[in-house]
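Continued from yesterday's entry.
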Amino acid sequence: MKILQLILIFIVRLVSGTIMLLQGFEKLTGNFTLKGLVPVIKDNTDSPVWYKWFFEHVVTHSTSLFDFVIPLGELAIGLGLLFGVLSYTASFFGAFVMLNYILADMIFSYPLQLALFIILLMHHNTLRQLSLPSVINYIKSFKHRGENKHDTHPSRR
C-alpha cells in the first residue's frame, strides 16, 4: 500500500507540475495581461465583493507587475513540482493561484487542479520522501552502504 501511495502522489505531483509549467510558459510567451480581465471581474456577479475591491484598487494600478509575476509564479510552481524541490510550498502556492482563478470566475480546469493541489497538501510526508534532496540522500546512502565493510577493527590498527 505504501508503494502505491508513493506512485500515485508522484503521478499527481508530475501532472500538476506539468500543467502549471505549461500554463506559465503560455502566459509568458503569449503576451499575458490582466488589463482586459479587470473590468470583467468588476462587473461580475459571481465574484465576492472583497475580491472585486482588490482587483479594482490594487490590481488595476499594478497590472504590469501582476502580468509579470503570475507567469513566473506558475513556472516556479511547475518546476518545483516537477523536480521535487519545495514541493509542499509549491503545492500551497498552486492551490492559492487556483483559488484566485476560481474567485475571478474563471471556471475551466481550475477546480480539478485545485483538487490535485489539495491532494498533494494532504500528503506532506510523502512529498518529502519523493523530494529531490531525499532521493539524492537515498542514492548516496545506498552507494556508500558497503564502503566500510572491510575496515580493520579499531583495536588492531
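--- second protein ---
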Amino acid sequence: MNIPEKYRPFDRPTLIVVTDNVQAKLFKADGREVNLVHLISKKLEPMEQERSAVMTGAGPRSADEHNKGELKAWTRERLYTELSTDLMHRLQAKEFEALAFTAPEEDMNELKECLHVDLLKHATVFVPKDLVNDELVDIVIHVQDEM
C-alpha cells in the first residue's frame, strides 16, 4: 500500500507490529510504501494434556469453561514469545531500524515484558489499541499520531 500524500512518509525502515491475543501482523514501512511481511497466529485451543474435567452436581464438565482467561494468557504468552524471537532474527538481518507496536491496552505491559531488551531499544511507538482488524491506512495513522 502507498501512504496517501496527506500523511508523512516513514523516514527509516520501520516494522509496524499489530497484535492482539492470538495473532501478530508485521508490516514493513519504508518511505511511502507499507506492506504485510509476516503473520504469526496462535489458536485459542488448549493442548490435550491441559484438558481436564470438573465434577459438578450435574456430572463431569470440561474445565476449559472455567479456564478461558488462563488459556488466553497462555496463548498470548506463546504468541509474544514467538514474536520476540521472530523480531530478533529480523533485527539481526537488519530488516528494520525502528519498531512500532499496537496491542490492546490491557496486554501492553505483558507484550513489553516478553520483548528482548534490544527490541525495546528500537521501539519508537507503543499504541495501546487493538487495531488487528483495522484497515492498514488507519493503522498507519494511529502509529504516526504517536510518533
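The chain has one domain: 10-42+61-146. Residues 10-42+61-146 form a domain with the Nucleotidyltransferase; domain 5 fold (CATH 3.30.420.60). Will compare against the first tomorrow.
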